[in-house]
Amino acid sequence: MKWGIYATFFGLSMVKFLFTPMGGQVAQLTFMETYISCCLGAIFSTSIFYFSASFFMKRAVRKNQEKMAKSIESGTPIEPKRKFTRMNKLIVRMKKSIGIIGISFWAPLFLSIPGGSIIAAKFYGKNPMTFPLIVVGIFFNGLVITSITYLF
User: Fold this and answer.
1) What average pLDDT is seen over the chain?
2) Which of 1, 21, 140, 147 shows the shortest CA–CA distance to 9?
3) What is the DSSP-derived secondary structure letter of residue 2?
4) CA-CA distance, 14 to 85, in Å (whole number)?
5) Domain limits at 105?
6) pLDDT tens for residues 111-148?
7) Cα separation of 34 and 39, whole Å?
8) Per the structure, how many domains does the chain have?
9) At what angle do helices 130-151 and 113-124 cross, to 10 degrees?
10) Distance between CA atoms of 129 and 58, rounded to whole angstroms?
């Protein structure tokens, strides 16, 4: 069996799902082997990051507060981080224009699985349909990307 190759595709899909299926033919995997190993890796990573998103968001706030406190203690205060960055504005604009379905389907694909899952959980974590929509999006996007890869 090709367990090492499956594990590699599984692991790569945990981080960057968009590009991983492109190596399926090079690794001499069939369409289904590539599709399943990539989708399983992405779903595993999404599960971890979606359900622990509140931990990551709280940790980021805590680290920022500690950094500010240390800078004040040392006498060299630093400017607080900008909240209205170009990326934050883009994400909020996306939220308003494409809503829960768009964020759930496209954020994990184009940003990364961890980042997109955390963003979807931040905006729509209380909605019970968010996680199932992310999983459906992974299956759909995986099918499209793997099909394009194997057609060309």
Assistant:
1) 91
2) 21
3) -
4) 27
5) 3-77+84-151
6) 899 999 998 999 999 999 999 999 999 999 999 999 99
7) 8
8) 1
9) 150
10) 23
